[in-house]
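Collaboration report, partner site 2.

Our partner group contributed sequences for two proteins of shared interest, and the home lab folded both. The records are reproduced in the order in which they were received, starting with the first partner submission.
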Amino acid sequence: MPLDRIVLARTVLTMDPEHPRAEAVGVDTSSGTIVAVGSHEGLTAAHPDADLVDLGDAALLPGFIDSHSHPIMSGMMCREPAQWIAPYVGYPSYADVTALFERLETETPAGVGLLFNGLDRTLQAAPELTNLDLDAFFPDRPVFVLDNSGHEGYFTSALIRQLGWADGKPPADPVGARFGRHADGTSNGRCYELQAVMAVLQPLMATVLTDPLLSAAKWYRYMAENGITATTEHTFGLSLLPAITALGSLPDSPLGLSLYHMSTEPDPTAPLETSAPEAMVRKVGVKLWADGSPWTGTIATTFPYLDNDTVRGAGITPGPGGEAMMNYTRADLDELLDSFAGSGLQMAFHVNGDLGLDIVLDAYERALTRQGLLGSDHGWRVEHVGAARREQFGRAAALGVGVSMSPFQFVYWGDVLDGTLFASEIGSQWQRFADAIASGATVSFHNDGSVSPPIPLLNLQTAVTRLTGSGTLRGPEQRITLDEALKAETVSAARHLGRGDEIGSIEPGKRADFVVLSADPYTADPARLVDDVRVLGTWRDGRPLDLDAFLQQVAAIDPAQHADLPAHAAVHPHC
């Protein structure tokens, strides 16, 4: 391969344990491949005609990898024209949310709908809203507010009228979901669980999101601005493929996407057919669900929630709910795995509760044994694992199961997990980073967009310091080193995507996908990593990405080609 470009930096953090630091990287731009890694003097002397790109005092690292995300829906629900109102993106209290309500009611033309996502009743002390509550802010406007869990929504009387419900009464409750009702049977502006939420939300999305592909592209850009060059679509369905193909085919598209096909689709193990480059769009796994969300009381645990006003105000029964919180019986899990395990694709289970993880690991062990996969590099995963116990990580490691962890659960909810939602011996240990690393399991980090902002540097800071968003130290024994945290955002995450031989480290033969940081993270105060180290840019295939050009390329696509994207994406759960 011809080396035609040399990238220089004050330091190159390669994530290659044999050669952890360098000064220069030589690239073949025709293939987008790394050819050589070494010193400034050595590479420039050996390749005097190569194009030199000097990054000055910056640090060059392999591009960060978010190992579990939902970029299509995240863009539509969290980028303009939708409004993201989560507590950690500028709306820490319900008063902040209502101030935005008042401003937008004044600024938005009459009759134009508004879509809000991210109301968090636990963190913002927000009430469970009704149509009458929202009508006080939006008397004549169709408005929908989605709870941060994604399991509940609230809407105005104007939207009820637009839906055309006879006498203002909702239709019959869908299976597994329900509409809220006043005593007289009319809607109270509430809906619960996916099918009811989508029945209300989908028609409004179709009118508010005038260019849904551009909305999705804005999330791609957001991830790239935080240094991410590869991620997943963890609730992939074939209806999303046209949008994913369109975005992945553009010359300045910033994200390589690995797809996990939902187990609820008719044939999730079927081969993927797409015209996008394989480096940009690739199907790697099947997504399954074991339990629910810790913020809604639907995780399968061996321990209860605490009984207090915060817990009951969030609509949570202290419990524990045990196996009743599982989405499937153990027999169901065995049947599903029997159907998919021989496909060669990864299995990836959403599971938060410790009891849920016991059941998933039991099912995995049976299926791996039946398929003769024990001891192989099968790539099966568990996702989130907030309440996992120490010995469970060891069991995952013994089975060869990767562990994809959620630092955001600790940084944003750590203060309520520890002593409010759960007893301190459980809440302070939420996301046991040190136990997971010590077990020998392969550990990656993710942000589960749009559940949290995709900020790898904050994940690193959190895992190294165990400081919550308030700056409080909780569970210090679960701190890990910066080396270990960086592996979770690079080489280990690449392995979890089944792409360890292509990305995740700066080594000859791998793709030249980089993140440029303003400073060497090893020189920063770990508690100030996100303040003292900035992402200066991302590179793909050996060239810096132009994110403005990417959005221009998307804007040039006729929005009518993807007008049905909200309807397709809205039926994909977010977890």
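Second partner submission, folded after the first:
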Amino acid sequence: MGAITAHAQSGLDAQQLAQLNSPQLALQQLQGANLSDDELRLKWQLLAQMDDAEAILQAASTLPKNAPPDVARLCNQAAAHAALQQGNGVLSRSYLAALLADRTLDTTVYQQARAAVVRSYLLPPLGNEVASVMLRYQQDFGKDKALLQSYALAMLQAGRADELKWARSQLDDTDAVAELIDISAGQFTDDQSKLRLQAAILAAKDAARLTLLRKLVSAYNAPDLLAQIDERLLNLPEAQITADKIWEEYRSLTQTLGNVRLLLFGSDAGWADLAKESETTNPMMARAVWAYLARSAKDANLRQTAQQQLLTQLHAAKLDRTALRLFASAWPNLPASVFNADTRYQLGAVAWAENQPAVAVNLWRDLPAPPQAVAVADWQVQRARLFARQGLWPLVADAVYAWIPLADTAVESVRWQMLNVALQMPQDSSALLIKLLPVLNPAQQRVAMQRLGAISSNDKEAATWLLNAAENAHDEAAWQARLDAAARLKKAGLLLDAKQQYQAVLAGSDAAAQRALATDALADF
């Protein structure tokens, strides 16, 4: 009976957790082989919500054969999608077959399942049946532009552009995929094709599209376009190319430009002028020249200027991850002494955004001041938050103390950020919080004083801070501060003061729990 009760309670807890937007925690309550139908249904609703392909496929492999039809439908839908995510077309089709065998399927779900069948055939390597599967879908449901584009891209990637005439006829001339088909078919001059490929590169977001563009660009003498594609391949979360490859491309582009302009390697000032001249007309070439100077310029100041320019231009092109990987490749461990202040700041910001706080700390730890475009007050808040993330509390304290004289320029949200950082400090932070108090607004001061009361080892001092936090306030937090103050006053032997605080809570608080606690405490007097 105890096991049954515990099991029922587990299901109830999972339902409550799901309603409280905690699907992972809820799923942990739904482990085991003996789930009820309702628990199994909830489990699959949560799995579909989380969209975790590995977890979905693992759960699908153990679905009970006697699962309710609606649960089996949920399972087959989610598992088919998960298998597609993992690039397993055969496994996806096995779940789709089970789903499509259900004669009670909603028409929308049925069409989505049929579209998923087509997508499963578009995974490499493409078989000979892919065209007939796509055509059969169109016969049943009409043109699906997104699916047709995916089909055309997959066929282009597989080198089967000659089979796309019927698909091309259904796409507008201005369609981006139609242009790629036309380029592959030789419908434009070389210059026209390069212009269209340039636009496609700037719009491409995923590895499959970029890889296809690289294949198409390779048919032309366009090393600058190849370098742009590779920059974007390096910028993907999982890099599809090495940083060293791009450094080689930068150098090759610079060499080519030098030959055209009759410049020789070693003429650093001439290269810098050429880079500046090219920034608006040919940004890719400008990046290549700055990259060459960033590593090879003989003058240290010019090297640092080139590093800053390269980083700035990659940032402008929304290639921050590429920039971080390129710099880490050229200057292992990103030693702060190599870069000027602007570069250190920008690299540190990118590293922090890319969840590499240790790298950011190395770059920002001893940075004396931010770039001119960054407000000094905001800079100290950024440093404090970063150092707190790494648990470097002495550095956090230094940043907070440096911020206090500048606090009058900070907006309220930034004040809260700095206060939150100060509240995280594990050691005695009383001196820091006391220093902060004058630059905080009343609501923030209450929070700080409650913290001061909580961490003080002196009961009288703690009670004083807590009473200050409760002054002129009558909300639940203020009454709680009075309760805490009363407990400290009682410990300090100030029984009359403690009794009066409990009486005030009993008379003023609307919270039943607080009044009950005050009543119990008063019984001891």
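Feedback sent to the partner group on the second submission included the following. The chain has 30 helices and no strands. Residues 243-261 form the longest helix (19 residues).
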